[in-house]
Design brief:
The complex is a heterodimer of chains A (about 300) and B (about 325). With about 300 residues, chain A is an alpha/beta fold. Chain A has 10 helices and 7 strands. Chain A has one domain: Rossmann fold, CATH 3.40.50. In chain A, strand 4 and strand 5 form a beta hairpin. The chains are: A alpha/beta (about 300), B alpha/beta (about 325).
Chain lengths: ~300, ~325
């Protein structure tokens, strides 16, 4: 789990740097600071369980087991990327590992993955489906429509709200009257759970319970993970970030990765500084390999723009 | 072969395909009784009134191996699901690099004549034609409805079936053969003629045929071409007809602005061989560019009909 969390962080640090260097195009939304949510949730899932992500999707993709080379190549706009260079950062997806895609529309994925949950229920194979979304999406219609249907039909769904306190620049407090998004679960007659989203054990434990409930046919759970985005809404230079500096610094002290490292170190003899350093070097090497793979990959041929509009 | 209504043709297509393929299921805000009775409530689902979620769920289920059918009833209700249609369904195969298929049939009633006023009398198919990534069918007969819907259900892409409200009770011969289909993307010459091509859509196919009868009395031979599929449009059949007749009138129940009629006019005039064969400008006979009004006097004034089509033909032939 620690390795996956560190992989997300290092992948995004590199993606941000390469974006600023002009090697990655468009926009990059970093998940740094929220890694415990994706890893804690996905750690409680099987490979054939499905998830859907948001515009801030690298973390979910990595946590679900996507290949770093193909992810980075997609950001680089190369033909070896997951979407053959047609998607980029906001559309990272690997249907093969049950990752139904990052999505450029806030709340846009919630009903889609609820359909995956319906498929799971109809197939009867005890798969579950997970929707990741932010506090901003919890104000949008698809959240409410989907939770209502999932609750009514007892779909094997887990709705994971990553409440990082801001929808782009706007404080969550200014956009909903209830303090906690989890409280909305009551309106649909399903459990709403609040966890410390920077505590991977808490996230994992809550997800395990929700997965058990879903697989048992008892329906969905809403899990609200209180967390924080360390970086601005996007990596675009000169972007305003109105969040108080003290608030950002305070949350950095609650770094989910450092908390896990401290925990592991606290367990006598289980994890040394050297081991941590070695792990980080291995992660960095994997990121380096993904960049080398991307740079060695060709750009798609221009006429490939006309392919994949329709399936055969 | 038996005489069946347009509505029955569509329903038969769905039932036949559902019998054959267990991955097909149907979602609408009320379950269709005959389907519910035959297939049960797991495969024929009455959803909450939440078209946006229903549409999104169809995408997710399709990407997970099912072949959902979403019945929005009236196209009016598809508009509350526009994010899912425009941002998701039409693009999802492409923007994820074709990783998996999304076989979905969306059904929606279109057209006026039902005295239901502005919201429930719309024919906005060109809004959807403008998106790359959705196939669009628009049948005009019971036979075409059945054959096209069967093809749409078997297609591995999102397909929207726009079905004319005015035609629901129209009857014609429908093959009983389980394997009868009509390929998506093939236009149909509904009546052969030599003097003018009338490209007509949905209900206006029938009005165009009636106009052809009127014109025949004056010795004018009109050919009526029904595109049947709007995306992909059968350019070849339309162009071949216009090259033969040298005149083109386009009849559409939708308004003219950026409509299917405009697209047809463009495919006729952009092609050198077809343009060279034209002896007069292309004429469009469409609804007036207004929201559809309620009062019969107003509504009937807004929509095109056989007389206006015949007048349009006379106008191009005079030029």
């Amino acid at each position: 789990m620690l390795r996956l969390m560190q992989t997300i962080r290092r992948f995004e640090e590199r993606a941000s740097a390469d974006y600023l260097a002009g090697k990655i195009y468009g926009v990059v939304h970093c998940y740094i600071g929220e890694e415990a949510v994706a890893v804690g949730v996905c750690g409680a899932l099987n490979r054939d369980d499905q998830i859907i992500s948001t515009h801030r999707g690298h973390g979910h993709c990595i946590a679900k087991g996507a290949d770093l080379n193909r992810m980075m190549a997609e950001l680089y706009g190369r033909e070896t990327g997951y979407c053959k260079g047609k998607g980029g950062s906001m559309h990272s997806a690997d249907f093969g590992v049950g990752m139904l895609g990052a999505n450029g529309i806030v709340a846009g994925g919630i009903s889609i993955v609820t359909g995956a949950g319906l498929a799971a229920q109809m197939e009867g194979k005890k798969r579950v489906a997970v929707s990741f979304f932010g506090d901003g999406a919890s104000n949008a219609g698809p959240f409410h429509e989907s939770l209502n249907i999932a609750a009514s039909w007892k779909l094997p769904m887990i709705y994971v709200c990553e409440n990082n306190l801001y929808a782009a620049q706007t404080s969550a407090q200014a956009t909903h009257a209830m303090k906690d998004v989890a409280g909305r679960a009551a309106g649909y007659g399903i459990p709403g759970v609040i966890v410390d989203g920077n505590d991977i054990f808490a996230v994992h434990e809550a997800t395990v319970k929700a997965v058990e409930r879903a697989r048992a046919g008892d329906g969905p759970t809403l899990i609200e993970c209180k967390t924080y985005r360390w970086r601005a809404h996007t990596e675009r230079p000169g972007q305003p970030d109105y969040r108080p500096k003290e608030e950002i610094e305070a949350w950095k002290k609650s770094d989910p990765i450092q908390r896990l490292v401290n925990h592991l170190k606290g367990q006598q003899g289980q994890f040394s500084d050297d081991e941590w350093k070695k792990m980080d070097e291995e992660v960095l090497a994997a990121i380096e390999r993904s960049v080398a793979f991307s740079e060695a990959s060709a750009f798609p041929k221009p006429q490939a723009a006309l392919e994949d509009i329709f399936a055969d | 072969m038996a005489q069946k209504t347009y509505a029955q043709g569509g329903l038969e297509a769905v039932a036949e395909e559902m019998r054959k393929d267990k991955t097909i299921f149907y979602m609408s805000t009320d379950a269709i009784p005959s389907l519910l009775e035959e297939f049960g409530d797991e495969r024929v689902r009455a959803t909450p009134i939440a078209e946006s979620a229903m549409t999104g769920m169809a995408i997710g289920a399709a990407g997970s191996g099912f072949r959902p059918i979403v019945d929005w009833r009236q196209v009016t209700f598809s508009f509350v699901a526009m994010d899912q249609i425009v941002n998701q369904a039409s693009k999802i195969h492409y923007m994820f690099g074709g990783q998996v298929k999304f076989p979905i049939l969306f059904r929606a009633g279109v057209g006026g004549g039902t005295r239901l006023a502005a919201q429930h009398s719309q024919s906005p198919y060109s809004m959807f034609m403008n998106l790359s990534g959705l196939k669009i069918i628009l049948p005009s007969t019971a036979r075409d409805a059945k054959g096209l819907l069967k093809s749409a259900i078997r297609d591995n892409n999102p397909v929207i079936s726009f079905e004319s409200n005015r035609l629901m009770g129209f009857k014609d011969e429908v093959p009983d053969d389980d394997d009868f289909t009509i390929p998506i993307g093939k236009a149909d010459v509904k009546r052969a003629g030599t003097d003018v091509t009338i490209v007509a859509l949905a209900w206006l196919v029938h009005e165009a045929l009636a106009a052809a009868d009127i014109l025949a009395k004056d010795g004018i031979s009109a050919e009526v071409v029904d595109p049947r599929t709007l995306v992909p449009m059968d350019h070849e059949t339309i162009r071949r007809s216009v090259q033969k007749t040298g005149h083109c009138v386009i009849a559409d129940e939708a308004g003219p602005t950026c409509g299917a009629s405009a697209e047809i006019a463009a495919l006729v005039t952009e092609d050198r061989a077809t343009f060279s064969a034209l002896k007069a400008p292309v004429k469009r006979v469409c609804a007036l560019a207004v929201p559809i009004p309620y009062s019969p006097v107003l509504e009937d004034h807004v929509f095109p009909n056989r007389e206006r089509i015949a007048a349009g033909v006379r106008e191009v032939l005079k030029a």
